[in-house]
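Go through this pair.

…
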Amino acid sequence: MSEPILKITGLNKSFGAIQVLHNVDFAVYPGEVTALVGDNGAGKSTLVKCIAGINSIDSGELLWEGRPVRIQSPNAASALGIQFVYQDLALSDNLDITANMFLGRELTWGPFTLEGRMERMAREKLTELSVRTVSSVRQVVNSLSGGQRQTVAIAKAVLFDTSKVVFLDEPTAALGVAQTRQVLDLVRRLADNGLGVVLISHNMNDVMEVADRIDALYLGRLAAEVRKTDTTHAQVVELITSGRSGDIGLSAATAAQSA
């Protein structure tokens, strides 16, 4: 097993008197899909915001490629190579695919925008990711299906080769069967291309299909990190809902204290 590219140990986060995360450990490995699962209020969003530099960390250590780092803003996370695709996708409906993929980071030469080069790079990235559902990178985003939009948002996140880890927040939410299939195939290809992928999802069927490992949060604590091949759908659901499943997960006392 390779070393994690991103590793968090003993992360604590409180908002006033309310402690939201308790000594959470979390790791992302290159070439793997790590599913981050948990019920509403389990702490998934807070954990991701701490990694993104949106929330400060009260205590704990964050290692990037084995070195301690402090991430104090989303731009700092992006500079390291950590990208985030949130549910709202942050796409501009009135712009085409190329313009969206380069929005805010357009390629220029003096006063000129390098439209041809950006179009070529956008097309090459979609080809590299084996995206075949988009006919032209000059399509306006408003004309795309939900699955195509998700694909564009993911391609935008990994457009540059400096990207090493990508967080995907509920990427198949509200998608049909065929579009879900396309997005899950893309998630798997990202990992196969060497990226560390974090899939945040409530859909256990998606998780069990594409994840290599699963991290289950229960009321702000890491209940367990398990290999997908060593667990079952039912066990993951038990970890999410009660913090333990048989001899896996939190101790009975800790689970009861958390509840």
